[in-house]
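Let us practice reading a record.
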Amino acid sequence: MRNKNLFPEKFSQNNQLPIRLVTPDFGHLSTETAAKLGLTHRLKYYFFLFVLDGHSQHTIDLDTIEIGKHELFFALPHQIQQYPATTHGSNYYKLRFDEECFSRLPKQFPFLLNPLNHQKISFSSAAAGRLTAIFEILLSLLSIADTDPELILAHVNSLLTEMNTAYFAADRKLGDDKIEKFIGFKVFVENNLTDHPSIRSIAEELAVSTDSLYQIVKHFSGLSPKEFITNRLILEARRRLYYNERTSVKELAFDLGFNDPDYFSRLFKKVTGKTIAGFFQDLS
């Protein structure tokens, strides 16, 4: 079941839809509200930043991404986002909406699972022009709090369609089937992460051979299926450590499906290059 009402109080710009758009001249939060959100937090909504001019820098899940002209950065619910201390270039659009808004769209958008493992999309001048036009329409719609939500959703749908097309543009030659299998792999891993599913069970679920699954996952992620699952588990560990420093290693290991806390600690160091204690030191 999708979570509802995840926006902070009085955050939405529409009376019936959890959504917010910000430009250099519109939609900025009050200093008090921005301070409550903080520069670093675990996202409860989808976030998009489209830069028209200049450049910006965002840190997501402790990795830093540079965003330049005609590039779009997106972040997903549950990721750890750190806002930059500086502005988002000289001209930009920032859009946020939560799962409730997303669930009301007429179709799903595979790029929001980030199957290609990059959270930055580049647009041609023509595509950037189309995105700008849609953002401007949304700006006018969200300037009035009682705008019919269906009008807003129609343009959000167009916006995400442009993003989805651009995201997959470089891999069209691979065929939709391979992309769909990789998306299926990622969804299965997300839904069964702490169960530590075997590669064979995932391959059977997706109706592919283990060799084919290996080739698909290796192409899209650069990792073997086992490495992908391990890295995802350790990423979840880093997220939880970041937000709950009192969690013991033993509790965290068990929460993530590891029966042996010592093995979990060794795996954490193997993947990150740091002990869990060293990870805490870097945060302080």
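A brief commentary: The chain has two domains: 19-172, 176-283.
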